[in-house]
Amino acid sequence: MGDNWTTIESDPGVFTELVTEMGVQGVQMEELYALDYESLQAISPVYGLIFLFKWRSEQDDRTAVTESEYLGKVFFARQVITNACATQAILSVLLNRSDIQLGSELTNLKDFTAEFPPDIKGLAISNSESIRRAHNSFSPPQPIVPEESRLADKDDDVYHFISYVPVDGALYELDGLKPGPIRLCEATEENWLKKVGPFIQSRIERYAQNEIRFNLMAVIRNRTGVLEEELASLEARRAALLSTSEEGEQMEVDSGKVSTEDLASIESNIVRVQEGLHEEAAKKKRWHDENVRRKTNYVPFIFQFLKLLAEKGQLQPIIERAKKLPGKD
Predict the structure, then answer these.
(1) Domains in the chain and their CATH numbers?
(2) Could you tell me the pTM of the whole model?
(3) Which residues are catalytic?
(4) Is the pLDDT of residue 13 over 90?
């Protein structure tokens, strides 16, 4: 059961729906195009980062943390099967955060495997029917199922996902192909976003001469919830200002003096947040529509359409015209 995992696309809409299908609440993925602290802080709270790169065999002189040092503190699972690294990288973030609503399935998995060694944790993940089903739901339909899966050779592009997450006062790199977590530096919830950038940038620079295909995603709190809370706070402040006597120039708000001149600023921020909510709604609708298309098997429709064209005598002329297109022999 654990050996038939398929590759899935590195896409924030795919990953967001994937974690939702696994029962996680209040979490989404956001694609990042910059590593500076300001860009990361703008989408906080950030629970962890997931980095996709073209894998290549190389020597890593860094020493992994021993099992006795991290067991019970860091959830680390070895990747024991192919194609599961995307979901495993996501789980490496989710299962190392106490401030995420995991849902019953992942909570039970985390509790059940807490004292297991990393390879057994990896087996538990790969043999979880619900996790595998959620993962495979995003695989493209296969019109022809091969009898045997071909292993990747040296000419194939092989991509791999790893995670960066703060745990117990330190920043860790979690890679299921390593024997254990890599402890990068001391870090807290308040400063880890300032510290993580150079480590990812260093990895990118090692490949920079012959590889430009990277992808970085942040696991963040659902932006709609964050913006709704900010909007409620702004509207409460506006209501408090509007309810004051016109004779008073200042009032107490949240135990501090707030001038009535702040009203214009509050109104401006309300408009900004409302626009952000509209953008999030449009983005999530787009993600939903794209995921529906990803999961739809169009092969029967195509076969039926080609059959109808052939019955009407229209298929062969189309084939002949296609042969005459530029670049066709």
Answers:
(1) 12-141+155-221 (3.40.532.10), 224-295 (no CATH), 298-329 (no CATH)
(2) 0.82
(3) 85, 160
(4) yes
